[in-house]
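#data-curation
PF: Archiving a pair of folding outputs for the training set. Convention for this channel: one message per protein, sequence first, structure tokens after, nothing in between. First:
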Amino acid sequence: MSGTRTRRRRTGPALLLAAGLALTSGLAACGQAAEVREPGAQVARDGRGIGLLLPDNTNRFDTFDRPLIEKRIAELCAECDVEFASAQHDVATQQQQVDAMITKGVRVLILDAVDSRSLRSSVDRAREAGIEVVAYDRLVEGPISAYVSFDGARVGRLQGEALLRALGDEARGGQIVMMNGAATDPNSAWFKEGALSALEGRVRIGKAYDTAEWRPVNAHINMSGAIAALGAGSIDGVYSANDGLAAGVISALKSAKIRPLPPVTGQDAELAGIQRIVAGEQYMTVYKPFRLEAYAAAEMAVALVRGQRPDGVATSRVDSPTTKDIPSVLLTPVSVTAGNIEETVVKDGMYTIDQICTPKFAADCRRAGLTP
């Protein structure tokens, strides 16, 4: 990541889980569930409030991150109140939500910033109000107390290496398009850096785009432009930074009647992305076990609520453009192709085979060996 330096302690998911168990016993959680409040409810000013601000309400955040974070906080801190808000991918909305959390008197804020730079002043205001900020998934600028994410360089390398494997001998002399994420997201630069470490010198990059707001419609527009500029028959593969962008890329390839579809990468293991992989439209995705990420954020937040430092959960230290030596957890992502869906996202309980293999994909699932 541009402007980011990481110093990792050699600690894996098993030690992260052990740290979480130690924190659980240290906090003496009881069986009563923590209260989860929707926006508008007043949080008691007793130092127990935890705010959770996510950038949007996509399937990932609604289905995995939010409920997992709330569940873990409830397990660790029965007396903690949790208040949630989604920014609907709007910077101004999220800035207002931070201000609302300050007014309500939360003690800790778990923040997945829509725009890491634009939220810096909001993080400054939160810190001035005595609120500890845990940066979630994106390394927001400003005086944060902890950071939880996946190793973005590793994500990009997995994508780049998978694309080269898919291209095989065609990589030499071949040409790809790079569909990166939003320029305002530091994770995009991190993914790109990792991808280029695998791709540069191995395949020609005909066009590269930073996709505004990570929107699939913008990826479709960019890909249509690449097809027009390079020619429909001269695109051998597409590096797509996530599954949403892959959807836009593939729709543009189909609209241009390109057959067969070139290999396209992805990230986040969205259900639609997994189904496209089964159907042979998308080559791979990167699975990020969200439970580990969500639990680490919850454990750090509860430690901070208790007046403790998050170092017992942290596995590394990270420098942001504005803050040095941030206690951090950087988790390991997993590459998923048609050949290991059952051993990854199904085995971990992210999706069932029935969820993946709807009637539309039944024949594709049989070919892939996915059967109930």
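PF: Second:
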Amino acid sequence: MKRFRHRLASLLMASCALLSGAAMAENGVTDSTITLGMSAPFSGPNGIYGTEMRESITAYFEQINKGGGINGRKLELVSLDDGYETDRAVANTKKLIHDEKAFALLAFYGSSPTTAAMEVFSGAKVPLVGTISGAETLRNPVNRYMFNVRASYANETDAIVSQLASLGLKNIAVFYQNDGFGKSGLDGVTAALKKHGLAPSAVGTVERNSLDVAKAVEAISKVTPQAVIMVTLYKPTAEFVRQMRKHGQTPQFMTLSPVGADLLVKELGNDARGIGISQVMPYPWNDSNPLVREYRKLMTTMGKQSQSPYYGVEGYAMAKVMVEGIKRAGKDLTRDKLTTALESMGSYDLGGYRVSYSTSDHNGSRFVDLTVIGNGGKVLR
């Protein structure tokens, strides 16, 4: 009887130890895998944006996994389509955290969708690395679980306005998307113009996922602007440029990085020539840049051909930040350790492109490069 009791006690102690260990294990982390979640548009007019990011991320994760993973754990990506719709992005975030048990999140898309989703992932204390947004709502005040990888819209619009002002242009209008993305860009343009003693000469809007630009064209055409700064995505941008030119308007058109230079060229053809675009990633055809060189080599090795290299490079940069953060967090991986590790990346060089984080600054980067679409649709610096 004593021997039976002793064995029973030993079994109970072992079971309790196993249960305790299981309870302590972080969601999304096993001895062999780390599950990461992504919500972005993979369908609809903006589906190419999410697809490009996902392809470069999965290619990089595959490379990491072939090398043994991180501390013996392979990276797995669960990606959900939100169609660039806020409600779907929020629902996806909940599903990724609660149903898919994602350890952390990366590569979200859009200002309004990510801002709304931030309430969910920060409430669950799950970090997100990277989103296609430069909105201030994702930067100030600092949210411990939101890590930006790109420059802000304020950085982009300041560079654009400074360039236009240096050319002596003063009659500058704004065409923007009527949501968090567009309004954040409008705020950036307005603040930048104020530094030069100017204000928008006219404004026009378009709804998200819409091509109805008629009212915007009418309002902006009335002032015959010297330049128009467009805070819109590629399809409404292309439609607006076409309609403005039909009205005999030939301003200097400028737009922000989310537009996707290659996609705009495909949509507009030769009519895209002369449009200026601010970029927040290194020039993706410059093999002298280590980050770009690595990205291009990886995609070639994987047999993938990018349709929008700027988005591909950005997805690659997000993936590299995530991997570095997980490595720094150590073998006993927790979300809190990952968050702390990311905040320790005071100035991390991804390869000619640096990100910087601290407990008081999650902006990541302030890099902005101005480009223009030249003959044949080539993006020129």
